[in-house]
Design a protein that fits this description.
The complex is a heterodimer of chains A (672) and B (294). Chain A is of the alpha+beta class and 672 residues long. Chain A is built from 18 helices and 21 strands. Chain A has 4 domains: 5-233 and 369-454, FAD/NAD(P)-binding domain; 238-363, Alpha-Beta Complex (Flavocytochrome C3, Chain A, domain 1); 470-554, Methane Monooxygenase Hydroxylase, Chain G, domain 1, CATH 1.20.58; 574-660, no CATH class. A 6-stranded antiparallel β-sheet of chain A has the order 13-12-17-16-14-15. Chain A is globular, with a radius of gyration of 25 Å. Classes of the chains: A alpha+beta (672), B alpha+beta (294).
Chain lengths: 672, 294
Amino acid sequence: MAKQRVMVVGGGLAGLSASMRLAEAGVDVDMMSLTPVKRSHSVCAQGGINAVNPVTRQQGDSEWLHFDDTVYGGDFLQQQPPVKEMADWGPRIIDLMDRLGVTFNRTPEGFRDQRRFGGTLFMRTAFAGATTGQQLLYALDEQVRRWETEGRIKKYEFWDFLGPVLDANGVCRGCVGQDLVTMEIRAFPADVVVVASGGCGLIYGRSTMSMVCTGSAASRVFAAGAKYGNGEFIQVHPTAIPGADKLRLMSESARGEGGRVWVPRKPQDPRDPRQIPEAQRYYFLEERYPKYGNLVPRDIATREIFNVCTYEGLSVEKDRLCVYLDLTHLSRAVLDQKLGGILEIYEKFQGVDPRDTPMKIFPAVHYSMGGLWVDYERSADGGLRIGSPRNQVTNIPGLYAMGECDYQYHGANRLGANSLLSCIFSGLMAAPGIAAWLKSVPGGAAADLPSSLFDGARKHHQQEHDRLLRRSAGGENPYLLHQELGQVMTKAATVVRHNDVLREAYGAVCELAERAERCSLSDTGNWTNQNVVFTKALLDMFPLAKVIVKGALQRDECRGAHYKPEFAMPGLTATDPAGRRREAETWCDRFQENTHKWLRSTIARLGSDGEPTITYEEVDTSLIPPRPRLYGLVGAEVIEEVWKERQLGKPATDRDGNGATGKPAAQPLAAG
Amino acid sequence: MQSTTNGHASPAGHAAAGTPLPDEFDVRILRQDAPDEASYWERHRVRREPDMNVISVLQRIAAQAKTVEGERVAPVAWDCNCLEEVCGACTMVVNGHVRQACTALVDRLLADNPDEIELRPMEKFPVVRDLVVNRRRLFRALEKLKTWIPVDGYYDAGPGPRVSQEAQQEAYPLSECMSCGCCLDACPQYQKIELARREGETDAEFAHREQEAFDTRFVGAHAISQVMLFNRHPTGALSAGERLDLLMEAGGIQDCGNAQNCVAVCPKKIPLTTSIGRAGRATVVRAISKWFGR
């Protein structure tokens, strides 16, 4: 009888951490990746990784508060038990990465140094210069290489995942992949398939994501019947460097270390920024959000930068939207030691030293909060039951998803430095559950199943491939279609969303999808044919693009990264206390109504006609009841007062769980 | 740096020296359809856009798929991923220099040579197609030299060892090595190994034969530097001797010819020659102490 195997698709932080943990448990693992795993997109993460640490703990911090910041920052759209579990694991995960040799920055006493990130008031973020993702990924890559030399892990690098193989009962029994060099298509029997394939930023054309982040693997799983959750929640990072090929991230850590965002008060002031006196600079984040300043959550920072440049006409340049991100008041030595990596990127691509001259930045598509729907098993204490095969499994038995391609941890908006944590956590946490599933999997090892199952799947993909290669010349150009798709998506489904624009965009995406069916290839060979691989990825972008646009169109509210001005809940306008009070009551009524109606996960499934259908599922908010996110709102303190009174007026079981269950009190509402 | 543009380089078509840059430019590419085929030059013409780098040039060429002469051709194949010089994928020879294509900015290349941009694949690795090369040997060196921290396991065992700021600042640059291979391409001692699959040879047999060939030839500066990174880590130091022994085997540090090209071309400015110097001393000490039975 053959031995069971697990196939892990994707070699970023989630795929690597799951693989090494499975290998340690004695499970044989295959890894399939478009690129050598050491070159995965996780290397682009810069700023750091969040966890409670001994210093913040003594300042009143706790895992519960990290959990609270995460769900509050995410506008309560997450299932809470997995987020609670993640925050609980945080300190141990950092310790493990420390033991694996990650070169975390140090204090003079030799402890790990910490910095502050957005959406929290604690210095919770451990970091390794400004290349934390790269350093974490390398540590895991090294461990996986170690297991590789012991024969426990086998890598298939430069392979494209074409789709899962499901048996007659709908259980995942392996997958089909294609060798990007020889173009060989092969079926891989596997008792579990883990998809850890990252985000789908390339649907937007240019983004901060790497070239492999097409979302194709997730889309192929979606096409096989998997549910896709919260697709419309796409994070637009406030600070990126515009470029012709991609928009390069300028880490939040630049602000975490004291960087200030500003524009000249005089529109398009032509002076050298260093010559503009303080009084003539508009530090709009600091003025509008005195509590969090430049470190408001990302969705808010992005919207403010976008508004200042567009509606308020204060962009630094006339023909190009951008604001200053200024580090010039900080010492060069500190900048080099803590931010060297990202400052070099700016210097290399813009030819300007950001230690001397304020950087020019603008928001860019950055992270997919949404992704493949995954399950979990709740424990008695509100966390997860570790070892449950339900953790991180999609609705297809035997098919797991983790890392950025799952929908689980970040709700409507991700906090900075939480992604590295969620990726490593989901990989490490899910591994024992996967091992448990292997013990119980029905029908023995996948490799012992009749070969007809795998031959059939392989042949299907081979035929699709051959059909693409045989397309007649003179049709649509896949690269130009991709640019068009990017333009449509960037206009309709990023910072500010309007229903008429979204409706039009849905039509445009459908039309592009039809045109893509008429793509012809400029390379029809069967050796390192990047043209056909790209075209396949492009074709698979359309179902997810539709999910994003349709989800955004249907969701008539504002939540985290999803902002529709038409449904925004503005601050209070009355000036007298009684009037304000009345308005606050109405505001809270409306908030409750909206929560009742829209605090639900968007769940998309692909219909037989190729169109996504959308339903909504309940969110488990039983640990921390949803409360208004009031960053910077006028009248926030009155709304907060009313909200608190209403919470107290409720029966104990319904009330803010913190007080009722003896858990540490949650942070007060942020009044900005 | 013009004061009129807030200190940023002018987006208009002017190089630093003030010479106007052309609206379009030629790109000469050394192509090769497959490993066992002959290479050939091909010329493409691309319109200049603001903020272009060699990657965006290759993207335009892929979309055009047409040479200067108007001949329809397959898109040029190349390797890339992050486009911000942290993944190490897009190494190629640009205007005669091995480097990352993503940081090769068109305006600067044209300022140096307004006539054309020349792209070639790396020289020390077998060409897969066009600008794509096979760098498996590079990763094999990391396996061979065991460049990792051999922890007991992944269960919670508290934090790692305390590390001084000095030690962290010394280790960090070494840990930025992205396995791009520039140091190997520039190294006179690092010679190309290109094996062809034999008739009837299985995947496993070929991989075994290839590994044997890799393991007897020079590992190169990147791998030596990684050995020093792990040997100087408090936990890694516990198995430093084993790594040094491996570094003294065939293809080890003794093959270094001290040309110092590696450090000159490293895009991350990793002090590779410092690592090599330290590794040299450490292996000598190790050899002597073993000779005397310690």
